[in-house]
């Protein structure tokens, strides 16, 4: 997981109404505080858990190549997953997490990492069409306004580029869904949110006709994480 947050009431009001049980979106201060606590042990505890999803997202981004923005770069666990042909810019809300990432970048082992910055994903400080690909690994379920963050991802990616997401998504029915709802109510203070429906991402896509869903894949071995790719279609010339 990585962090990124904040948004106003207007953004919360535009959240699509989804017919599924779900807890409220996480708040900025909760996420920032939680990941300050996670920073010292994040690589050891969380790194192995998210390995398959992290690599799948980086591989998808690598196929696009060029300038890649990683939202929620965290401690820089994904740095080895990108090759030297890419140019990585990483942002995160958590300064303690970023400090770990800066230490990794400072070793010189990852020349593909060009910039790291503390930044709120709801308000990216980049011009339109700045990147060939935007990657958000284990982020979109944790921000205060997922739709606002997705809007920003769509804004800063160039036409023809891609937005790549990887996350655990809500099971929606059955025992797994009940367990996720129970777990969610008890782990918010840890900056975790195990139940988030794909329907919410699909509803956002309906508001952005230039964004085409090109992949939705449950990742092996157990299908716990889902890889989602959107391509930004070029604007047709008149």
Structure, described:
The chain has 238 residues and is of the alpha/beta class. It has a single domain, classed as 3-Layer(aba) Sandwich (Rossmann fold). Helices cover 33% and strands 21% of the residues. The protein contains 8 helices and 7 strands, in the order ααααββαββαβααββ. The protein has helices at 9-13, 28-38, 42-45, 51-64, 95-105, 146-156, 174-187, 198-206, and strands at 67-71, 87-92, 113-118, 131-137, 157-167, 211-218, 226-232. A 7-stranded mixed beta sheet has the order 3-2-1-4-5-7-6. It is globular and about 45 Å long. The chain starts with 8 loop residues before the first helix and ends in a 6-residue tail after the last strand. Residues 69-164 form the Methyltransferase type domain. Keywords: Methyltransferase, Transferase, Ubiquinone. It comes from Pseudoxanthobacter soli DSM 19599. Pfam families: Methyltransf_11. GO terms for molecular function: S-adenosylmethionine-dependent methyltransferase activity.
